[in-house]
Amino acid sequence: MTSLTTKPPRAGDDQPVAPGPVLRLTARRPKLVLLLALLLAGLAVAFSGDVVTALKTGGFDDPDSDSVRGRQVLSEHFRTADPNLVVLIGKSGGSVDDPDVRAAAQRVTQRLATADGVTVAGSYWVDHLPQLASRAHDTGMILVHVDGDEDTGADRTAALHDQLAVDGPVSVRFGGFTQINNDINEQVTKDLATAESIAIPITLVLLLLVFGTVGAAGAPLLIGIFSIVGTLGALRLLAAITDVSVFSVNMATALGLGLAVDYSLLFVSRYREERLRSADLTTALAATMRTAGRTILFSAATVAVALCSLLVFPQYFLRSFAFAGIAVVLTTVGAALFVLPALLTLLGNRIDRWALWRPRASSDFWARLAAFVLRRPVLTAAPVILILVFLALPFGHVRFGVADDRVLPKEAESRVVADTVRTQFADTGSGATVVVAEHWGTGTDARIRVADYAARLSEVPGVTRVDSMVGTYQHGVIVVAPGHPDPRFVAGDATWFSVVSEVEPYSDEGADLARGVRAVPVPSEVPVLVTGPAAQLVDITGSIGARLPLAAVLIAVSTFVLLFLLTGSVLLPIKALLLNTLTMGAVFGVAVWVFQDGHWSALLGQTGAPLAVAIPVLLFCVAFGLSMDYEVFVLSRVIERHEQGADLHTAVVEGMSRSVRVISAAAGILSVSFLAMLTSGVSLIQFFGLCASLAIILDALLVRPVLVPAFMRAAGRWNWWAPRPLRAVHARLGLRENG
């Protein structure tokens, strides 16, 4: 394929196609295939009953970072330095010193003190520290450290919450990291049922509009339900093997339903075309498997390759999406190429029963649009490019952060506690930056070095005070001297420093503070670890940023290779990469405008905040893969007509008229799956749902029908250009839909 000159049809193009081994199995034993599919679905349902509780809410950290290792040292030697549960006890219009409030605090403190794996780090009613009481003096705080990993900590916190939480005249409310995790798990469980109850009925309506008959519309929906069930089973299996993020449930089920309907839509549409050419159902299915079946395999490969790039990141939040995404793709492809042909075989001619209307195989609208774009490529492409660039502009002031309690609805208990602490309490030190040394030393010399280091740390811009074993320092001067080493800060030859600041930890200022602390020279060059929320932000952004170029290169190279094998062209894969990058820029611009700048906050019930740095990376990989999915749909049809001898104009117009109708319908259905995620109460899921659906809609309605034909018209015969060595590679290894 080195030119666009008219080619004669290839020999055998119009000959009947012999069924392959997959089709021979599904056509001869359709009931057996469907029975096995039903059995697998039943096992998946039974196995995945506790899938949400088996997943984890964390995974944003690099396990080898200083902040993570610092937390591990604190957990081993200084549990009170790392409180992960906050208990607020208060009385509206009352005082923390009222007898009924004190009685409630005593009850809570006694239960916490006797609970396994629980350490009370501080309490207003025990330590009488003024910063542990609210400014209005109506609420007091107990800081607690709960031992164990995420699962153990969540279970212990849930048990304590069930026993102690009270919503009455004297309220007892739980917050902090462990309670946030429990609230997120509970919210995701509710959201999953809500989203699917919305997406599935709407999907059925859209399928009826696309196919016009109940039989043709029902088949893709059944495949979609099978894909959702299989996906949940795969996630539960993955959770038994490795850490999997709870957020992957919503993405995986939406992606599973969307891809299942996409592939089924492509398959059934092509099958109905082939039935117009052949009265024999097996022959029509064989031709469909040869064409649409290969396109489905190729499209699935592009999605899987994009998701595999997430494996370069050490955060299990991202890695689990790669595993989940690959499981989704395998489940969906299996359903589309095994279960769907068996279902169509059993339906036979009944696929057209209960017709509402008779859709045409090709669309005059998309054909006329493609022809117009080919006549006026610059006039049509320029406005679309300007729209996408305009949408991308807000991305210029993007700010990245780390997900915290603000991903939850404002009424969630842990969110209420966190908002109360932020607005009504002086600095408690619970969000301080912590410096820990596992082998600092002992004796007089060690205390002298502690004093020197604490004084230096207190001079870092933004630091309010530094608490240490030898006292409290402000602006390089000791202000509180205990007279003897404070035992809270000593464990053998280990010690730690609490660097307190009024700066918001998850912010650019907080990151600068953490970097400033790390830049302070340590006496005698003793190894230290800097941890805390601000250090966590620096480590997460640094870890992801360092690996992002590698992930981008892997996506670009693998996508280029796959599209080259499909097209035999060097220019078309480059075009696809550039257009996808332009689309993603527009999506990220809208994400900043909505989720960072706070527009539509009241509508979505979320608070504007810096974007959680891992989410745009995830969105890019998923949306990029889906865009390439549609690229394959379009190019496979254009190439098919081109290889049959059509010139550029005819190949593009006819290819677009048959593919864009399917793409627009598939995009509408897939976007419904993702838009249903807007019903979630977790802003991270809302972010992913809105942005993924926007990427799909922009791609299907602007990029594929306008920019793709405009580019192909501008490139002319260069569309199919490749250097001679690569042409030889394609001749030997190239993949075509139609042969």
Keywords for this entry:
single chain; Alpha-Beta Plaits; cell membrane; alpha+beta; 739 residues; 4-stranded antiparallel beta sheet; membrane; Multidrug efflux transporter AcrB transmembrane fold; MMPL_dom; RND superfamily putative drug exporter; transmembrane helix; elongated
Structure description:
Residues 1-20 are annotated as: Disordered. Residues 219-346 form the SSD domain. This is RND superfamily putative drug exporter. Keywords: Cell membrane, Membrane, Transmembrane, Transmembrane helix. It is found in: Cell membrane. The structure is a single chain. Mean pLDDT is 86; it is low at 1-13. This protein has helices spanning 21-28, 30-47, 51-54, 66-77, 99-114, 124-127, 150-164, 177-211, 214-241, 248-277, 281-308, 316-347, 364-375, 377-392, 413-424, 443-458, 508-519, 533-567, 571-596, 601-604, 614-643, 648-675, 683-715, 724-733; strands spanning 85-91, 118-123, 139-146, 170-175, 400-401, 433-437, 463-468, 471-474, 477-480, 490-491, 494-501, 529-531, 611-612. The radius of gyration is 30 Å and the shape is elongated. The strands form three sheets. Strands 6, 7, 8, 9, 10, 11 and 12 form a seven-stranded antiparallel sheet that branches. Strands 2-3-1-4 form a four-stranded antiparallel sheet, sandwiched between helices. It contains 24 helices and 13 strands. It folds into three domains: 21-47 and 183-405 and 539-733, Multidrug efflux transporter AcrB transmembrane domain (Multidrug efflux transporter AcrB transmembrane fold), CATH 1.20.1640; 85-175, Alpha-Beta Plaits (2-Layer Sandwich), CATH 3.30.70; 424-537, Alpha-Beta Plaits (2-Layer Sandwich), CATH 3.30.70. The chain has 739 residues and is α+β, with helices and mostly antiparallel strands.
